Amino acid sequence: MIVAFSVTPLGVGEEVGEYVADAVRVVRDSGLPYRTDAMFTSVEGESWDEVMEVIKRAVAAVEARAPRVSVVMKADIRPGVSDGLTSKAETVQRYLNR
Length: 98
Prior knowledge:
Layout: E1 2-10, H1 17-30, E2 34-36, E3 41-44, H2 48-63, E4 68-76, H3 84-96
Antiparallel strand pairs: 1-3, 1-4, 2-3
Helix pairs in contact: 1-2
């Protein structure tokens, strides 16, 4: 499964990159495949429990420094598929190259 999530600290001012980096650091250190872009971090794992534990820790890292935290998540649950982060992007690219 792949879960795209965004963690936004509230009440810390306009510059939130430092806080978001705390969350992404947790994801990076988890060892699970992930990608971060301008709006979301997507993390891929075998189960809800595995992925949600990483997201929970990422949110906690931001929550430790911010008075309020907003979280948005979107999940793609597709048993038996691995390396979805890469294969989904490659499929779109293949169509773009036609």
